[in-house]
Amino acid sequence: MSAYAGEPGAPPDPDPPSDPDDDTPLAQAAHTAVSVRTGRTATLPRPDRPRLLTVANQKGGVGKTTSAVNLAAALALGGLDVLVVDLDPQGNASTALGVEHHVGTASVGDVLVDGRPLAEVVVAVEGIAGLSCAPATLDLAGAEIELVPVVAREYRLARALNTYLADPRGGARHDYVLVDCPPSLGLLTVNALAAVREVLIPVQCEYYALEGLGQLLHTVDLVRDQLNPRLAVSTILLTMYDARTRLAAQVAAEVRQHFGERVLPTVIPRSVRVSEAPSYAQTVLTYDPGSSGALSYLQAARELATRGRQTVEEQR
After folding, report:
1. Range name among 141-145, 191-195, 305-309 with the lowest pLDDT average
2. DSSP 3-state assignment of 40?
3. Using an 8 Å Cβ cutoff, are 201 and 229 in contact?
């Protein structure tokens, strides 16, 4: 006869209770995983007003969308209300959050091109309380062409967001709005930069990532001068960090030297779990909450929320 759990000779408890006072890495990972499974991690500070951030990098494959959705999920698990605006026609953020985004679905493209209210396209993300998404469909791919003759085309997203956030029936409740941009510096990205106060740049810890960073910063400067004087690069997040390579450490050191306190202390490591999660329509926080990637994004979100919004004057 087999032994019961806890008796001599019994198999280990498949879900043992975690001790929050145990500070070993394994115990902390277990405690975090249990917290995520229950739908709430340690409470994060709520900003005085909604923080609007564009997550941008014209170089593909740097963890831009991955960072946007996982930071959003981590903030929501910390008790905050978060909206992700998917501005990439590929709809990868919508996929990772498990939000329907087939052609014909009400999406951000309808907001930008047809002037549809943003409130009509925002949907709640299942499994994470407080997290919402405005999805993108392939229809958004033609938005840049359709917007060319439109007056004030650079402000279409800004106007939609301002109207939505001013609506006491729902929009004003959001603590964070994260706009996920396409890997380009076209009209969609310009719309995103014109609509927010802060830019969060994920930087891959490889040499080529540094080459493209200058072009993005130049675009941010142009948008600040011509369209949005409140815009500032407030946050740099180092991603895909491989501790086994000297290059990763060199790139991280160079970025920290140049950007100073704007670089979050936490780096996001290369992680198979982070890459696998979107294929299951999940963030890594729900897919494998005890993994190194999930723990890193939780810590990065805490740093983002704790440090507060830096003003444009502080950034210059």
Report:
1. 305-309
2. coil
3. no
Say if 18 falls within a structural domain.
no
Residue 14: inside a domain: no
The CATH number for 244's domain is 3.40.50.300
The answer to whether residue 20 is domain-embedded is no
Nearest to 78 by CA among 89, 86, 70: 70
- What tokens were used for 244? 């086994």
Is 22 contained in some domain? no
> Pairing mode, if any, of strands 51-55 and 176-180?
parallel
Tell me the per-residue pLDDT of 109-125, one tens digit each, with 9 for 90 and over: 999 999 999 999 999 99
Q: Edge-to-edge, what's the strand order for the sheet holding 232-239?
A: 123-124, 131-134, 82-86, 176-180, 51-55, 198-204, 232-239
State the total domains in the chain. 1
Is residue 136 within 8 A of residue 93, CB to CB? The reply is: yes
Q: Which residues are bridge partners to 178 per DSSP? A: 53, 84
Question: Which residue range forms the structural domain that includes residue 89?
Answer: 45-308
Whole-prediction pTM: 0.86
Which of 260, 52, 273 is closest to 174 using CA atoms?
52
